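Page 42, continued from yesterday. The earlier attempt failed because a stray header line got pasted into the input along with the sequence. Redoing it now with the clean sequence only.
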Amino acid sequence: MNSFFPIECCETLRKIGLLIRSRRLQSRQRQKDLAKALSISEQTLRKIEAGEPVVELRSFMLVVWQLGLVQEVFQDLTEIEFRSQFIAHNPTLPKRVRLIKTKSGEF
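This time it went through. Structure tokens are written below.
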């Protein structure tokens, strides 16, 4: 498996992890209690709060949702969804794209 992970993504996950930890502490929840409530391990919660990119997406989303951070973490999704729907339903855009055939061995 390739171990490459963009620095920008690492920084974003670290910031989200700090936000998650801050919200958990504001709501006076221990890691142990939050993890138990979500049926995830304390180790997984620690990794999420540390911004480690090696957690299951389901666990990450459960924590974000439980702490009420979905809007803060994904605030630009409404605009992205609107643009995606516009592009998907725009009749002037081609529906299919043909790729140029290459000779065997060429890239």
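Notes: The two ends are 23 Å apart (CA to CA).
Reminder to self: strip header lines before submitting.
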